[in-house]
Design brief:
Length: 123
C-alpha cells in the first residue's frame, strides 16, 4: 500500500506537537482508529434521523481528528458535510454519505499500515 492519501507532513507536525514522543503519536493513531468508525456511524445515524445538530458535531469531530493525522481526503469530506449542515444543504450531505464509510475504511487501513518510526525519521 502506498499511503498516498495520508499527509506525512501533518503526521510530522503532530509528532512535534506531542514533544517528539513516538509512543504518544502511536496512541493518537490508535485513538483515531477507534474513534473514526464510531464518528462515521454517528454521522450516518444522524443523517438518517435528519438530526443536523448531531450530524454537524460528529462531522466536525471527524474533520478535526482526520486532519490532525493527515487523513486529508476524509477530513475534507467531513468539512463539506459540516458546512452543508450549516447551510441546510441536505442534498449535498446525501451525496457525501454514500462515500464516507468506504473512505473512512480505506484511509483507516492506510493509517494503520504506516510505519510511524520511519515517518518521523524523515525529519
Amino acid at each position: 500500500m502506498d499511503n498516498k492519501s495520508i499527509d506525512h507532513e501533518a503526521l510530522l507536525r503532530l509528532y512535534h506537537v506531542v514533544g517528539n514522543d513516538l509512543s504518544e503519536l502511536e496512541e493518537l493513531r490508535q485513538d483515531y482508529l477507534a474513534d473514526a468508525p464510531a464518528l462515521v456511524s454517528q454521522i450516518l445515524e444522524s443523517a438518517e434521523q435528519r438530526d443536523n445538530d448531531n450530524l454537524r458535531i460528529a462531522a466536525h469531530s471527524l474533520k478535526s481528528n482526520a486532519r490532525d493525522l493527515g487523513v486529508t481526503q476524509l477530513a475534507n469530506a467531513a468539512a463539506v458535510i459540516e458546512q452543508a449542515c450549516h447551510n441546510g444543504q441536505s442534498d449535498r450531505i446525501d451525496e457525501l454519505l454514500s462515500q464516507l464509510k468506504s473512505l473512512e475504511a480505506n484511509t483507516s487501513a492506510e493509517i494503520a499500515s504506516l510505519d510511524m518510526s520511519k515517518i518521523v525519521s524523515e525529519l
